[in-house]
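call fold(seq) -> C-alpha cells
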Amino acid sequence: MTTSMTGFGTSRYLDKDTEVYCEIKSVNHRFLDVSIKPNDISHELDLYIREAISKKVKRGSIDIRFKLKFPSENTYLVNQSSIKNLLSSIKDLKSVNTKDIKFSDIKDVPGIIKTEQNIRFNKNLVKKIFKEALDLLVENRKIEGDKIKKIFMLKINLIKRNIKKLSSSNKKLTKIRSDNLKDKVEQLCGSFEGEKLIQEVALLAIKHDVAEEIERINFHLESLSKELSLKNCSGKKIDFILQELFRETSTLSVKLDHPQYKQLALDMKLSVEEMREQAQNIE
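ret:
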C-alpha cells in the first residue's frame, strides 16, 4: 500500500458550554516530526497524542491544533485574617467607626476575597475527538497514496513500452551504427580494407550497444513495481530505486543517436524525473 505524507483530518464536538475541535495537517518530512498547539496541554495528554501518532504514521511533519472550551465554575474564599488586619488598622481613626463598616465596603479591597476558577476539563472527550481526526488523516493519506501509485503505474507502463521498442530494435540499431561508421571510414580512407579496421568499427558499435542498460532498466522497473505492491512500501527505498533508474535512462539517452529512439529514451528519463518528484510524498 502506497501512503502519502500529505494529508488532512478534522473532528469537532460542540454543545452549549463545550467545544472541542482538532485539526491535523501532514506534509513531507524526512522523519516523523509532531507539533501540538496549544502547547500548554497536560504532559499525559501530550504523551498520549505522540504515541498514537507514532503507531500510525512513520514519516511526515504533523501539525496538530486544538480549540478547547469547557464549562467553568468559580469558588470564592473570604480571607478573615485580612479583614481583621484591615479593621485593626482603621479602628484608631477618629473619623471612621468600624461598627458602621459593612462587608460591601471592603469586599473590593485586595486580598479580602480570593476567586478561583475551576475548568471542568474533559480529557476523555479531547482524546476521542483527536482519535477521530487522526483516523481521517490516516485515511486521507491512503487516498493520496493511491493517487500517487496510479501515476507511478502509468509512468512504469510507458517506460516498459519504450523499452520493448528499443529492445526489439537494438540489433537493427547496432547494424545501422556499424554501417554508418564504415561509410565514414571509407570516405576518409578511400577504401575499406584491413581486418584491424573492421575490428575497430565493431568495437565502436559495441560501445553504443544498449542491451545492458535495457536489462538493468527492466530490473529496476520490476523492483519498483514489487515495492509499490507491498502492504507497507517505503518511500526511501522507492527514491533509491528511482535514482538508479534515472542513471540508466540518462546513459541510454546518451548512447542512442538515432532521433526516433533517442526520443524514446528522453521520454523515459522525463517519466523517471516525474516519479522522483512524486516519491517525495511517499511515506
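The helical segments are 43-56, 80-90, 103-106, 123-189, 195-207, 211-229, 235-255, 259-279.
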